[in-house]
Design a protein that fits this description.
By secondary structure, this protein is of the alpha/beta class. About 35% of the residues lie in helices and about 25% in strands.
Length: about 450
């Protein structure tokens, strides 16, 4: 058997493939910008172009034969598998409001609270049902077939089979958390009865690679293709986060995640009662073993920063360098953050002082989500930071100065891709559980010097 497993991460900004050996060391990494089609009504993801980009990064690894490949993605984005193959669909981006009318109509028919409780608050504008029904209503219809998310579409290309993983199934907006089954009657209410939903397989399920594409990408005979799961939880696994800790992924969308400890003592149906606590709380499944996890997702800092930068005369480096030290009374309210995330400008200067205030406001908002998840899950361990946002010295300084509780920084590179590889490696018996993959290191941080060192920033502090 080959001594290489690969993880592929379909992100909003970049698509990555990383190869790992049995010792857990990364031996190759390839990255390409995510194809994006900008339109007057929002950004579209051209799914077949994204799959071609994934083929490119896998092929470019140059690592010889591959024993297993794990896949993760942003969730709801995908296409339809028909008798003729994959539909060349331009899928609406998760971060715009297309499909909101679909959600409103479904809530009017079925009851907003009923849908919230059934789907653990995944029936929302970002869900597959909302976006695909929008395409059905506005783009000449969706062909008959079976829906496949990005991971499912690539898995189909490599194996000829169509399936899904439970965490990604939750992002459909029509998956029942408690009973662990789809809600086809709600899917049909969105005028999608002619589109089937893929079977949901257990965590770590894999199918054997076959066909010309698999061979061209150097998947060895019988190599396992594994849909690892939703990107943020998979990144938590890749970062070495344990039960009893909180995962904070700083990026375009900043998710706060906590897997449940046994001490929490909550069943899935009991979790539903917690949905009243906060409108941005939802529940999914831990991708390595299917245990419940809590997710808090109010924050889209990358989108707010884009809006800010579009109206500023200064570039990001200048704003970062000139920002004042962190403060716990930023000029931006939580309502301001929501407006910026939606692309609307707020009454504020676009200078370095305001840039620092924007980052501080996001840290304080993250503190709220962190406290909520600890209360529900019983987590008492560190908050583990990861994600591209750690490249911002000013942002991470605010995490240190304004955050609550012990902090650690995952030193794992490309956490989501590594989480995929960990789950794929477990599927072929390289380790007992994904969490046992060697090399998941982190550094406890209590000072700026330690924080800079943990992320490899050797530039002198201002």
């Amino acid at each position: 058997m080959s001594d290489i497993v690969v993880g592929v991460d379909f992100g909003s900004s970049r698509i990555k493939a990383a190869a790992y050996g049995r010792d857990g060391e990364m031996v190759a990494l390839e990255v390409v910008d995510t194809p994006l089609r900008r339109t007057a009504v929002g950004d579209d993801f051209p799914v077949l172009d994204m799959l071609d980009a994934a083929h490119h990064v896998i092929a470019s690894l140059g690592v010889g034969s591959i024993a297993a490949i794990g896949l993760t993605s942003m969730g709801e984005v995908g296409t339809v598998v028909t008798e003729d193959g994959l539909t060349p669909m331009h899928f609406p981006s998760w971060y715009d409001d297309r499909g909101s009318d679909i959600v409103t109509a479904l809530e009017a028919q079925w009851g907003a609270d009923t849908l919230r409780d059934l789907t653990a608050r995944h029936l929302r504008t970002t869900s597959t049902v909302a976006k695909l029904a929008h395409v059905q209503a506005t783009s000449g219809g969706v062909p008959r077939g079976v829906f496949a998310g990005l991971c499912g579409a690539l898995a189909y290309q490599l194996t000829g089979e169509v399936w899904q993983e439970a965490g990604l199934a939750m992002t459909s907006g029509v998956y029942d958390l408690v009973r662990r089954r789809y809600l086809p009657e709600i899917w049909a209410s969105a005028q999608l009865a002619h589109v089937g939903l893929p079977d949901v397989k257990p965590p770590g399920h894999g199918a054997s690679a076959r066909g010309v594409l698999a061979r061209s990408l150097r998947l060895e005979q019988g190599a396992r293709v594994v849909i690892a799961g939703h990107d943020h939880p998979v990144a938590a696994v890749g970062s070495g986060v344990r039960v009893g800790e909180v995962f904070d992924s700083m990026g375009t969308g900043e998710a706060i995640i906590s897997a449940f400890s046994d001490a929490a003592g909550l069943g899935l149906d009991e979790l539903v009662a917690h949905l009243d606590r906060d409108p941005d709380l939802s529940f999914e499944f831990w991708p390595s073993d299917g245990a419940p996890l809590a997710v808090w997702e109010r924050m889209r800092p990358g989108l707010a920063m884009r809006t800010f930068l579009d109206s500023s005369d200064a570039d990001r480096a200048t704003l970062e360098a000139g920002a004042a030290p962190p403060r716990d009374d930023p000029a931006f309210s939580f309502a301001d953050l929501a407006a910026l995330q939606a692309g609307a400008h707020v009454d504020s200067p676009q200078d370095a002082r305001a840039w620092g205030g924007l980052l501080d406001a996001y840290v304080l908002l993250a503190n709220h989500g962190n406290s909520l998840l600890r209360t529900i899950s019983g987590a008492e361990g560190a908050t583990v930071l990861t994600g591209g946002g750690l490249r911002s010295r000013r942002w991470r300084d605010a995490k240190l100065e304004l955050g609550t509780g012990p902090l650690a920084v995952s030193t794992v590179a490309e956490a989501a891709a590594r989480g995929c590889a960990a789950i794929a490696g477990a599927a072929v018996g390289w380790w007992n559980r994904a969490e046992d993959m060697p090399g998941a290191t982190r550094v406890a941080v209590t000072s700026r010097r330690e924080l800079d060192a943990a992320v490899g920033d050797t530039t002198p502090s201002p």
